[in-house]
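Re: the request from the purification team.
They wanted to know what the chain is likely to look like in 3D before they choose a buffer screen. I agreed to run a prediction and write the result into the notebook, where they can find it.
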Amino acid sequence: MTAQAQLFYADKAAKAIQRLLAASADERQSFALEWLKKKLEYSSPMRKFREAVAKAMEELQRVEVVTKWEISKSSKGNDQLTIWPA
């Protein structure tokens, strides 16, 4: 995937994640990365998906849609994205 394609996908992912955040008023929201990857119809390897999600989250943090975010392991040992909306 080219750098331009990665930026395009990160923008698309940021918009999709912002819509997910708008659907709930929870102070903290968590999404399994595998579920999010399927939801966003991302076909590249998980490593590249994680990079795109990180870029998307950095942008959402920059525009103050989120205050904090992290990718970590869930209590079940699966990768998850946790977001604290602004």
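For the purification team: The first helix runs from residue 3 to 22.
Please add any questions underneath this entry.
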